Amino acid sequence: MKFRVERDVLADAVAWAARSLPVRPSAPVLAGLLIEANDEGLVLSTFDYETSARATLRADVTENGRALVSGRLLSDICRSLPAKPVDMVIDGARVSLTCGSARFSLQTLPVDEYPSLPDMPTATGTVQSDVFAHAVAQAVTAAGRDDMLPVLTGVRIEIEGSTISLLATDRFRLSHRELGWDPRTPDESLAALVPAKVLGETAKSLTAGSEVTIALAAGGAGEGIIGFEGASAGGVRRTTTRLLDGEFPKVRSLFPSEHQTVAKVKKSDLVESVKRVALVAERNTAVQLKFSDGVVTLDAGSGDEAQASESIEAEIDGEDIVTGFNPQFLLDGLTAIDEDHVELAFTQSSKPVVISGSREDGTTPAFRYLLMPRRLLS
Fold first, then answer.
1. Which helix (H) or strand (E) holds 317?
2. Domain 2-113 classified CATH 3.90.1150.10?
3. pTM for the complete prediction?
4. Disulfide engineering: 308 pairs with which of 93, 121, 219, 277, CB 3.0-4.6 Å?
5. Which CATH fold would you assign to the domain 123-242?
6. Is 28 exposed, middle or buried (0-12, 13-18, 19+ CB in 10 A)?
7. Averaged over 39-62, what is the pLDDT?
């Protein structure tokens, strides 16, 4: 194996592939990054039996070959190299890396023991990369982080024709984002539960090109795996990950069809007010919101402890209402919304609020955030 590649192209690709390396690999070879040089260029791969990453990039290959080296060490080295072309060659049981006057010699891992990467399922369709990345970032806001409840650490992807729905919940809040895409089969109907962390990182990393290809098998070969592929500055990147097992809760019915009170508030005012008032809120206590007479009044703190209160203007349609929320969960939902004004829709104080953007043209926002109230201290 012998090749030359641009330093920035290599460093970016190595860093991208290495991000999927396991923190505590079950086998030493899984900490490795597989380097393959062939007639098509350079291929860098990582795999931990759950998630795979494969970056193909342009390189001047003079000798084909493959080697397995420590992925994190190679990433650290590439990040520190001078801005000059990088030459790599196998030298016995080691890989020699030269960049300008900098030289490194890396011990190789047994490449024959490295597992084969899973095949990408057949492409299901394509979506605009920037739209997909933004939609996923909104959806993962409500995903759970408790590994004891693995089903809730995923994002449910539902494909119905030319629409993709993204759903996530941690039992206390729920996010729902819809976006359009270009399916290969117009009447395709599929669903998958994808680890939220992998989905979020993957979508964010595939924005260099204009499109992302999503590959999801309906059955047969590739079932249980979802793949994403997109262009990068130096070539093509592909990620596959195993789908989560288990039944995602039927959460769509939690969004009420009617509301008794709807408040429209300037998002930036509400965000800043929640941040200020929450400074005196004790751990695991709610910030109270009172909607009345064209004003939202926020309160936090109680008893002999510090207290805070602030009021901001609001357009309120319906009955007065007093409720309370986890301030961080409330901020998470508000900051995920794109519009300048938000609507908070209530049925009653003890029921969840539906938060969405408010549009002047009256169209329905693509993102909705449902948040459970917290018990207020008396």
1. strand 315-318
2. no
3. 0.92
4. 277
5. DNA Polymerase III; Chain A, domain 2 (3.10.150)
6. exposed
7. 94
User: What is the CB neighbour count within 10 angstroms for residue 208?
Assistant: 14
DSSP 111-160: GGGSPPPPPPPPEEEEEEHHHHHHHHHHHGGG----TTSGGGGEEEEEEE
Which CATH code, of 2.30.30.30, 3.10.150.10, 3.90.550.10, 3.40.50.300, is assigned to 255-371?
Answer: 3.10.150.10
Which amino acid belongs to residue 5? V
* Per-residue pLDDT tens over the stretch 130-163: 999 999 999 999 999 998 999 999 999 999 999 9
HSE at residue 119, side-chain half, CA atoms within 13 A, is 8
For residue 323, the model assigns a pLDDT of 95
The residue behind tokens 């590439």 is 78
Q: Is 354 helix (H, G, I), strand (E, B) or coil?
A: strand
What pLDDT is recorded for position 291? 96
**Strand, helix or coil at 349?**
coil
Structure confidence by residue, pLDDT tens digits, 288-339: 999 999 999 999 987 677 899 999 999 999 999 999 999 999 999 999 999 9
DSSP string covering 222-275, please? TTTEEEEEEEETTEEEEEEEEPPPSPPP--GGGS-S--SEEEEEEHHHHHHHHH
